[in-house]
Amino acid sequence: MLRPTLNEIISGMQRTIMEALLPELTSPYAQGQAMSAIIMLGHAASVLESAPAYDAAEIKDLRATFAALKRLGDKHISKKSGLRGALARAIRASAKNPPDRRAIEAEMATFAAAVALGHADDGVARQVRGYIRRNLERSRKLFGNSLPTA
Prior knowledge:
75% of the residues lie in helices and 0% in strands. By secondary structure, the protein is an all-alpha fold. Helix 1 (6-21) packs antiparallel against helix 2, helix 2 (28-72) packs antiparallel against helix 5 and helix 3 runs antiparallel to helix 4. The mean pLDDT is 90.
């Protein structure tokens, strides 16, 4: 393992703020901001540990959602809506090794926009909304209580 690790760097930053910077601050506002920085750095360190599992679950869910959308077939995904092309691009991007996550997420955004605008049928909307619910739950677990509940 390379040293220092990201968590060691973050811990060092927290100590520096606590031991060197904070005692020099005279303003209560500045002291509060320093404490907020220490807390945010601690949160970032905990997120770093959970991020690989989050990423793996996200890719797995995106792949499964697009596979489910593909199974719906052409009857549910009209050519006019542009969603057939988005689906094909998402499936190609998810088949890459490693998967092209940005491309997959961009195509999911296309589907989400179509659902929001009423340009997707009920089957497509059900799949997309299901993915969004699962994504929000994963994000809530990763980021803790800093996200609103559904």
